[in-house]
Design brief:
single chain, alpha+beta, Nucleotide Exchange Factor Grpe, Chain A, domain 2, 3-stranded antiparallel sheet, 54% helix
Length: 219
């Protein structure tokens, strides 16, 4: 007890001065420490909005991926269907020339000539039966023949004009005068157009002469 009474009084100002000299920062007794803050300043409502936006974006990405996969599947199905649909095209093209030769053989002998010669008539009948058998085989494989008669309107989607002549009597310009070779379609695909001669506006003698004169002067 006597030691405590004899201990010297320590001035608080001396303590502060010593702490300051030692680099120790003191906080006033009447000053409160600032409250600790969160790592970010987002409120719970802000976090909910952000999460909802992320969820909506993820759903949209999933829908786009599903749609793209569905489109890819449909494209693949269409390509496979087209391959199957037109698989007979190479074979059909090979037989088209055979069909043309048969048609040319039939056209080379008229019915009057065949009637005058029994042997020739039997030969013509046999060739006609061969043509019918070939065309029936075409039909079973969805290969359809395209024909054109005089007076039919020229159609660039089915015909190929290999020549143009002045329109004869009964035929208008733009109409077919003669079919040279039949055409063929495989389903809706044109694999060979029908070759035809097409009528045009008749040229007058003056126009024809002028054209010849121009050619001679050019030469």
């Amino acid at each position: 007890m006597s030691d405590e009474k004899n201990a010297p009084d320590i001035d608080p100002e001396d303590i502060k001065a010593a702490e300051k000299a030692a680099g120790i920062e003191t906080v006033p007794d009447d000053e409160e420490l600032p409250p600790e803050t969160a790592p970010d300043d987002q409120t719970p409502d802000d976090m909910i909005v952000e999460l909802e936006a992320q969820l909506a974006e993820a759903k949209a990405d999933r829908l786009r991926a599903v749609a793209e996969a569905e489109n890819t599947r449909k494209r693949a199905e269409r390509e496979i269907a087209n391959v199957r649909k037109y698989a007979a095209e190479p074979l059909a093209r090979d037989f088209l020339q055979v069909s043309e030769f048969i048609r040319m053989a039939l056209q080379s002998v008229t019915e009057e000539q065949a009637d005058a010669d029994p042997l020739l008539k039997n030969l013509r009948v046999g060739v006609a039966m061969t043509e019918k058998t070939l065309l029936d085989a075409f039909e079973r494989n969805h290969v359809k023949q395209i024909t054109a008669a005089p007076g039919d309107t020229y159609d660039h989607n089915a015909h190929e004009a290999i020549s143009r002549v002045d329109a004869p009597e009964g035929i208008k310009p733009g109409q077919i005068v003669q079919m040279i070779g039949a055409g063929y379609r495989l389903h809706d695909r044109l694999i060979k157009p029908a070759t035809v001669v097409v009528a045009q506006e008749p040229q007058s003698a003056e126009d024809a002469g002028a054209g010849e004169g121009t050619d001679e002067s050019t030469a």
